[in-house]
């Protein structure tokens, strides 16, 4: 089997590449900067450095692939998409090029990384993927547009497309720019952690290695999953105040210093509509179809993360 990972040097991309490298496949790791080869790889690995927004770059990258894992994200991130006119080319245009690449009539599997925030402020907690989408940010609108493009290409017989909508992902990596890593770095520096308002908003936190295994499971069950999107999560909501307190405690245990305080501050101007709403995910649809489930408890995942970031 020939599998191409687009965005292979990124945070989630590195973990997915490492998980796939443990399989006896041909693996092409494509990224803007050179992707590191995972240690102990079984797969036959080819690394490709490319700017996938350039003309014909995607077609060359996915040539001969039986499956494509699409993890490309514009460098402005989800908060910067509203102010960056180039974000749509990366967040939507690359997937357009993937599904329209010239082929010999094969229908490759395409597993795309969406976001649970595409639903907008959630109508209920937990969400389970049956909610109507009301995206509230440019990033979420772009992710939804790409997902709809993939669904249409699947219906047209061009690909077998699956979208995995990701919650808050975290893990020890230099590429992790999320809230867990940011607060852990502050605690390691001895700085207090700040939570907006009372910190009661909940998030569903998924460890990056469990996320990678979900993408592998999607590849294994692509025919059953094709044409749909599936939200991922643990099903457990953790308030931000509780999370930051746990981070302070884990860092204190690692460094031997007293735990830094967690302070309440007013939300800054320009916060997204989804920032004030809890997001917890019932992933039973994906779990029932694939057998996947998160294996790393939050406390253990935080301990692993601080060891790397420290």
UniProtKB/TrEMBL annotation:
Superkingdom: Bacteria
SUPFAM superfamilies assigned to the protein according to its UniProt record, in alphabetical order: NAD(P)-binding Rossmann-fold domains
Protein name in the entry: CDP-paratose 2-epimerase
Organism: Dactylosporangium siamense
Positions of the UniProt region annotated as Disordered: 113-134
Domain NAD-dependent epimerase/dehydratase per the UniProt entry, residue ranges: 3-232
